[in-house]
Write a structure and sequence with these properties.
By secondary structure, the chain is mostly helical. Helix content is 48%, strand content 10%. It has 2 domains: 103 residues, Endonuclease/exonuclease/phosphatase (Deoxyribonuclease I, Chain A); 119 residues, no CATH class. The longest helix has 36 residues.
Length: 254
């Protein structure tokens, strides 16, 4: 945010040529590459005035408050107020970050399909399903499913980072196979190779199942329009179309 010393669009100047200058073109390319958008603004449009001694001075919008797409997700209710310039040649701008909640919010429960192959999964389900819950059948089922979440979260947490796990097990397998190559008659090394190979296959299968499930969910959410451009366009439009306040004919907030 601040004075960028250049207009961005043709309507950012009160008068003059409609063609882009070199500075405007460079500024526009920089904004596009950085994926920045204007935060929703209220008040004065032209933020800089020439203030000549005689005649009509040039007005331009060269002060802006811009934000990355991810920033709009973090502060969806952010907006800017541009005040009158008074004695200055620039208008002051104030950024408002409403409803900023810094408290911790637990992540929603997401069931990972690959944990069904773990021995603890069946034990966890059988333990919770054996409990008796008073009430109708549907009430009992919903409560048992809710009570399953902590146990399933624990099983998923025990698996660790699947991607790092696969990388580390692949390195272990490479090292032990090098030992097999140098000591082909060593029974202990051969057994270590079999164990490393088994662990690597299990971890690779878990990672593959996890990535397939994740990619399918993302595809179902957006369909054939699942592109970065599509999502960014929707976020920008939602940010620009928000109404933060309504004023009556007397200028009072209602």
């Amino acid at each position: 945010m601040g004075d960028f010393n250049s207009a961005l669009h043709a309507d950012d100047s009160s008068f003059g040529t409609s063609s882009q200058s070199i500075g405007m073109r460079d500024f526009y390319e920089c904004v596009q590459q950085s994926e920045l958008v204007d935060v929703k603004g209220h008040g004065i449009h032209f933020t800089w005035n020439q203030k000549p001694r005689e005649g009509i001075g040039l007005l331009r919008k060269i002060d802006r408050v811009m934000c990355h797409i991810k920033g709009l997700e973090m502060f969806p209710d952010a907006y800017v107020i541009f005040h009158p310039s008074r004695v200055s040649d620039h208008t002051p701008c104030i950024l408002k970050l409403n409803n900023v909640n810094t408290s911790y919010k637990p992540k929603p429960f997401k069931f990972a399909n690959f944990i069904t192959s773990k021995p603890d999964f069946k034990v966890c389900v059988e333990r919770e399903w054996a409990k008796s819950i008073a009430g109708c059948n549907m009430f009992s089922v919903t409560n048992k499913l809710r009570n399953l979440k902590p146990g399933l979260r624990k099983i998923l947490f025990q698996q660790g980072n699947l991607h790092k796990k696969v990388i580390q097990l692949r390195k272990n397998l490479d090292e032990v196979q090098k030992l097999v190559d140098s000591n082909p008659l060593d029974v202990e090394v051969r057994q270590r190779e079999q164990q490393c190979l088994h662990d690597f296959k299990v971890a690779a299968y878990d990672e593959e199942c996890f990535l397939k499930q994740k990619s399918k969910v993302e595809w179902l959410c957006a369909g054939d329009s699942n592109t970065t451009f599509f999502h960014n366009s929707v976020k920008c439009r939602n940010n620009q179309s928000k109404i933060h306040c309504i004023r009556d004919v007397a200028g009072k907030s209602v």
